[in-house]
Amino acid sequence: MEVKNMTKQPNKLINEKSPYLLQHAYNPVHWYPWCEEAFEIAKKDNKPIFLSIGYSTCHWCHVMEQESFEDEEIAKILNEHFIAIKVDREERPDLDHIYMEVCQALTGSGGWPLSIFMTPEMKPFFAGTYFPKETMHNRIGFKELLNIIILKWKTAKTDIIESADEITRIIRLSLTNLQPETLDKYILEKTFNALELAFDKEYGGFGREPKFPTPHTLLFLLRYGVNFKSNKAIQMVEKTLIQMYKGGIFDHIGYGFSRYSVDEKWLVPHFEKMLYDNALLMLAYAEMYQITKKPIFKEITEKIITFVLRDLMNKEGAFYTAIDADSEGVEGKYYTWTFDELKQVLNHEELNYLINYYNVSEYGNFEGRNILNLIHQNDCNILDNDYIKFIRHKLFEERKKRIPPHLDDKILTNLNALMIVALAYVGRIFRDNNLINYAENTFTFILNNLMTSNYRLYARYRDGEVKYLGYLEDYAYLIWALNELFLSTSKEEYLDLSHKLYDTVMKYFKDMVGGFYHTSKDSEKLIVRIKPLYDGALPSANSVMTMNLLQLAEITDNSCMAIKARDQFHYFSGSLNYQPTAYTHMLSAYMYYKATKRKIVIVTYKNNPHLTAILNEYYKKYLPFTTLIVLYKEDIPNSSYFNDYANIDKEIAMFMCENYNCDEPIYELDTIIQEIKKL
Fold it and tell me: Residue 4: inside a domain, yes or no?
């Protein structure tokens, strides 16, 4: 990891491993990492704390650094009057969750960089996001804000302390005082109706700009469409996925999706690429392919896979976190083209084809440069042809000569687990064992580097260092990943580990009143211990844990886990009723809980050639409420879960149950395939 201004004296961030903190290690600001020393000095010196939270691929974090944190004048003010603390939100999501709640409560909005002023007791009294150095466009400047706070701290400190105490009290109350109620029996329909009302019929997505992919909302709609026989729900997803791919939010040269679009057409992205967006979009596009059988959705899924394996996977099989939006200090420079640059790479015929295919012009569509896009194309013209592949390859090779954006190369447990989910799941659908092998390799990395012998997880690995006790999302996503690995490989050790991690969650994270805490009971004590529910850029850890309970209940016939999932719905019912579209992954779990479910168990020998034909037929179908388990007769005698199938003396057998009512087993291959075709 390179750091800037190495001729200057580094601050205390120089000893950290976080790429984000290292970006600030040579700022003239005397940054501290989040540590006891910082708070002790703040108390001793009677100084307020300035807490800045961001991440290494955040564009506006870079802007605020350039304008303020690299500025000697600002640094002098901060160093004399404040204790300044830098936090990487991806390493410390516990702090980010809490203080983002504060910012949204005080200002009505949030984002990064997150700027918090607080007492030495961690209690906030002022919050915001990006501030320019000087006041401009009715936005207070950072220098003016600092001077106001300095004056208030000197002249009205008692008022500030009282305000901080009250803000903390309200935040604690709002995050912990949940009021369970009866869950609206029409909540799924109401969620769909709200999404339909917000749906952009012309360009897909929901609401106006900026537009985010929110894949878990798309996955909710696909399940709703099947469960409620709503073609409209499926069409909304199809329109959104096609328009996103056609827009500039998709990198048409190197592949992969950017974080979001600043316009309603999906044309101009915020160019950073996140591992989690691409993992979740793999699921959405693969499921859309299952439903529609349209080759374009498989092609897009495979392009996402190409991107993540090529650009985000390390040699040990783990995945990096993100790629920056900026290169050479300019947002999008790496990904966009001037007309002259294209003329230098392509001949006249190739350039003319590119102009028509990707809507290129001499004037460009983004600050004089071109974002390649297919927005003008008819949907039937967007499948790749050999000629555009040839042109794309030339541009890709030329682009590789540019200075690339910064790569955040830390390895996060929760995001790697999500990538395991995507690879294992898509590998099943596409009948691609290579993808499943990649998923297994990623898990091996986590097992060897981020999991202890007593099934505790760490959250982050970088440069040989593991750090931070795992958060709820680390466990929730890894349990999900292990369940998918079991369903993809039939290896029972994955199911065993899933249960071991579940036991850890119950011991360290469960609140017996209801819900799961974000941090373990032996973690650092903060101003509040929250239970994350909001399905934002990522599905929340409580939502994922709820679905895990239902999935494990279905796989192992453990009704106690289904009851625990039901308790989750009751405990969070007040929030779900109030704003259901904010919790679409939790509502996908609820839909699964309420739906008519089917379980299919196939028992056979390993390497039975007939099994391939059965699985190929099964995975042609989109069956989100059906669980298919393949058991191998060689393994069943040692099974902890499936001993009931030990005495099957046929070459192959299929057991099918629906809502816990089971049909007679089927032993004939042709009949098995015919029954699967009927599903």
Answer: no
**C-alpha closest to that of 280 among 188, 472, 417:** 417
**CA–CA distance, 176 with 517 (Å, rounded to integer):** 10
Domain boundary among 536, 560, 595: 595
Same domain, 148 and 81: yes
Say whether both 387 and 435 belong to one domain: no
- 206 in the same domain as 82: no
Domain boundary among 595, 626, 643: 595
DSSP string, 452-478: -TTS-BEEEEETTEEEEEPPHHHHHHH
187 assigned to some structural domain: no
Overall domain count for the chain: 4
Q: Angle of helix 142-155 relative to helix 157-176, nearest 10 degrees?
A: 110
Q: Residue 209 is part of which domain span? A: 198-408
In eight-state DSSP terms, residue 662 is: E
Question: Does 189 map to a domain?
Answer: no
Q: How far is 221 from 205, CA to CA, in rounded Å? A: 12
Q: Does one domain contain both 497 and 418?
A: yes
| Inter-residue contact 326 to 276 (CB < 8 Å) | no
Both structure tokens of 18: 């976080």
Tokens of 143: 């220098």
> How far out from the chain centre does Cα 19 lie?
19
Confidence of residue 138 (pLDDT cuts 50, 70, 90): confident
Dist. CA 263–CA 381, nearest whole Å: 23
Burial 421-442, CB ≥16 within 10 A → b, else e: bbbbbbbbbbeeeebbebbbeb
Measured distance CA(348)–CA(382) in Å, rounded: 22
Residues 361 and 250 in one domain: yes
Whether the CB-CB separation of 131 and 142 falls below 8 Å is answered with: yes
Q: How far apart are CA 432 and CA 613, in angstroms?
A: 14
Can you give the CATH number for the domain in which 630 is found? 3.40.30.10
User: Rounded mean pLDDT of 379-385?
Assistant: 95
Kindly state whether residues 47 and 112 are assigned to the same domain.
yes
171-222 tens-digit pLDDT: 999 888 888 899 999 999 999 999 999 999 999 999 989 999 999 999 999 9
The answer to whether the beta carbons of residues 625 and 597 sit under 8 Å apart is: yes
* Sequence-distant (≥ 6) Cβ neighbours of residue 552 within 8 angstroms: 479, 483, 498, 499, 502, 558, 561
Alpha carbons 437 and 424: distance in angstroms, whole number: 8
d(CA 226, CA 596): 11
Looking at residue 2, what is its pLDDT?
Answer: 47
Q: What does pTM read for this prediction? A: 0.96
**How many CB atoms neighbour CB 617 within 10 A?**
16
* Rounded Cα gap, residues 250 and 290, in angstroms: 21
Instruction: Let me know whether 559 and 606 are in one domain.
Output: no
Question: Same domain, yes or no, for 469 and 509?
Answer: yes
